[in-house]
Amino acid sequence: MARRTGFSALAATLALSALTPACGRGDAPTAAAQNRPAPREVRVSAAESGSLPRVVTVTGTLAAEEQVDLGMKVAGRLVEIRVDLGSRATKGEALAWLVSTDFELRVQQADAALQQARSRLGLGPDEPDSAVDPEQTSLVRQARAVLQEARLARERAQRLLDESLIPRSDYDAAEAAYQVAEGRAQDAFEEVHNRQALLVQRRTELELARQALKDSVLYAPYDGAVRQRLASPGQFVAVGQPIVTLVRIHPLRLKLAVPEREAAGLRVGLEVRLTVDGDPAPHRGRVARRSPAIEEGNRTLSIEAEVPNADGMLRPGSFARAEIETAAGEPIILVPVTALVTFAGIEKVIVVREGAAVERRVRTGRRVEGRVEILEGLEAGEPVVLEPGNIASGQPVTIAG
Q1: Average pLDDT over every residue of 72-99
Q2: Four-way CATH pick for 57-65+249-328: 2.40.50.140, 2.40.30.170, 1.10.1040.50, 3.40.50.10490
Q3: Cis omega before residue 251 (within 30°)?
Q4: Which of 54, 97, 137, 249 has minimal Cβ neighbours within 10 Å of its Cβ?
């Protein structure tokens, strides 16, 4: 009886042991299925293989193409200044005037002296200066007549002397009179030349007086704008004393210092794209000048670009950020900027693989038109999640249709 009772207990224990693991295996999958999170729906975009041109990004300063302090060529008292700070001026426009009374009187004085010199040469009001023939002037004709008379008197004296009808002294007197008349004729001819030279001098003095009258008005040498007014009406100004500062604002000159490692591809004629603070609109120009040497102090190459500024929106002295395209694009990988996640200085993207999110650390390059260059960490064609937010690596995802 005792053996049967022990056998029954052992059989019951083995049966219970066999049932217990079976029950455990049946319950475990059901619990795991209940705790697994639902897949998150995401939008993806495939990493594209594209190209971007090689671009040099530098900063610089906009400067006026020309800037000059304008002053008078003659001294005088200012009577009017028509421009002030910011005034626009066109080439040849009058900017300021001196009192003209003294200059007008000098013109009249020089003109009167010229007319006097012309009358001494026998020129009429309408005759040109070149009409003067020295042989036809009254001074020379009179001297020639006296010389002719002395020549005839000497010849008569020579005949009478040969016939012993006059003493030798009379002939000597006729000879001396002839020599005097010949000298006076030469003097008369030279005097006419002197008067011709004086006529040229008087003509030049008149032109100088007229030029001084013209110089009593200050004109703009080119189209530009007034940067500064340095004098006031009623002030006496000396020769060359600055009155206004004029700058040419179209085109402007963009001065840039390009690092030596980027200088090899730079050449005259390349397009420059630039932006300035306070003006979000992009502007364009062209490389116009390039230094022949590298600056030893900072290892940069100085270049200058001409930037059109017909509307005057850009101002000299502005800080500018510029991009210069130096070479054609090389194959690269591009993804939308919205796919990039940055945390604590680490850049990453989320890719979808076998229904789960996988985190990839990447190194980025340039950004253009809503896309960013991936230098390493991603292959072309891999699907990246757009606007990943707080998606964690390994989280199940489904791609939105």
Answers
A1: 94
A2: 2.40.30.170
A3: yes
A4: 54
Q: Which helix (H) or strand (E) covers residue 226, if one does?
A: strand 224-229
pLDDT of 131 > 60? The answer is yes
Question: What 3-state class would DSSP assign to 143?
Answer: helix
The DSSP output letter for 392 is P
The CATH fold assigned to 40-52+331-399 is 2.40.420
Q: For residues 83 and 85, what is the distance between their CA atoms, to the nearest angstrom?
A: 7
Number of Cβ within 10 Å of residue 149's Cβ equals 13
Contacts of 103 (CB under 8 A, 6+ apart): 74, 76, 209, 212, 213, 216
Q: Is the pLDDT of residue 211 over 80?
A: yes
pLDDT of residue 34: 53
User: pLDDT tens digit string along 41-63?
Assistant: 888 888 888 777 777 889 999 99
Contact 230, 69 (CB under 8 A): yes
- Angle of CA points 55, 60, 66, to nearest 5°: 120
Tokens representing 2 are 């005792």
- What is the pTM assigned to this prediction? 0.58
Q: Which two tokens stand for residue 63?
A: 């400067």
CA–CA gap between residue 381 and residue 385 (Å, rounded): 13
Cα separation values, 381 from 266, 335, 356, Å: 34, 10, 17
Q: State how far the Cα of 125 lies from the Cα of 105, in Å rounded to an integer.
A: 21
**Secondary structure, 3-state, 275-342:** EECCEEEEEEEEEEEEEEEEECCCCEEEEEEEECCCCCCCCCCCEEEEEEEEEEEEEEEEEEHHHCEE
Tokens of 358: 């996988």
Distance CA 60, CA 297 (A): 17
d(CA 392, CA 389): 9
Measured in whole angstroms, how far is the alpha carbon of residue 29 from the centre of its chain?
77
Could you say which DSSP state residue 396 is in? B
User: What ranges do the domains of the chain cover?
Assistant: 40-52+331-399, 57-65+249-328, 100-215
Of 19-28, 151-160, 243-252, 318-327, least confident by mean pLDDT is 19-28
